[in-house]
Amino acid sequence: MARIAIIGSIEVPELPVDGRQSPMALAIRRGAGRALYQHGFVVVPELVLPGGRRADLAAIGAKGEIWIVEIKSSVVDFQVDGKWPSYRAHCDRLFFAVAPDFPAEILPPDTGLIVADAYGGALVREAPEHRLGTVARKAMTFLLARTASARLHQAMDPDGILADFL
Question: pTM of the prediction?
């Protein structure tokens, strides 16, 4: 049975933590999500991209712009991860999200930067824009919508049939 959170006066099912992320990464994800929301974006965490890689956060804005945020919880996490450049093919802007004490100068200057903790975040450096083509944008928009819808359905019906979709 899914746990229930109260947001305002609305009961919303809480999704279970999947165990892949460290507590630090989860805190950064929460704060980065809040920062993105303040900039008019809604997020889908752990979005499986075409090709099988997972974007830590995928976000879509009111005008359909798509951003991907790669969360780095430590310097070692950044140093051993070489997959993030492939995310550019799936977004209009690519960001890193890190904790306040992360040495941001080691991050590539051609990416955006969000500094976040569990309570919020700030967009510190804007990412350069590399607009998706029409076909890729449509595919990513559908992927975001279908994944978000399936996760909501799974939260409402945890014994349902969508486990393979997620």
Answer: 0.85
Q: Give dist(CA 40, CA 44) in Å, integer.
A: 14
The position carrying tokens 């449509």 is: 138
- Between the CA of residue 97 and those of 22, 90, 94, what are the distances in Å? 14, 17, 10
Closest CA to 97 of 27, 22, 26, 28: 28
Maximum CA extent, the chain: 46
Domain positions in the chain are: 20-157
Q: CA torsion angle for 141, 138, 83, 106 (degrees, to 10)? A: -70
What residue type is assigned to position 13 of the chain? Answer: P
Rounded CA-CA distance 24/122 in Å is 17
Q: Which residue has the tokens 């752990």?
A: 46
pLDDT one-digit tens code per residue, 90-108:
999 999 999 999 999 999 9
Of 69, 67, 79, 70, the C-alpha closest to 106 is 79
Higher local confidence (pLDDT), 13 or 157: 157
Q: What are phi and psi of 73, to 5 degrees?
A: -95, -10
Count of Cβ atoms closer than 10 Å to residue 40 Cβ: 12
Distance CA 60, CA 65 (A): 6
